[in-house]
Amino acid sequence: MPKSRIRKKDDFTPPPAKQQSIKLNSGRRWVAPLMLALFLIGLAWIVIFYVTGSDMPIESLHNWNIVVGFGFIAAGFVVSTQWK
Known about the structure:
single chain; mainly alpha; 2 helices; rod-shaped
């Protein structure tokens, strides 16, 4: 029986390495601090309202102080959508 030919395989050459530049928060460095600040202001507003017995943040708003605090927290969530 005749011998089959041996195929010569090409040497493996890896593809050239791609240079990647990763830019995190390029131009959006203000988002995270503002988001955290809004969360903390809203939380502090609500806590102060409860601790002082509805006397502190703005007394004339009465229970609307809770809405103001949650408004700050909601604004923090809106700002968080800009984070990339």
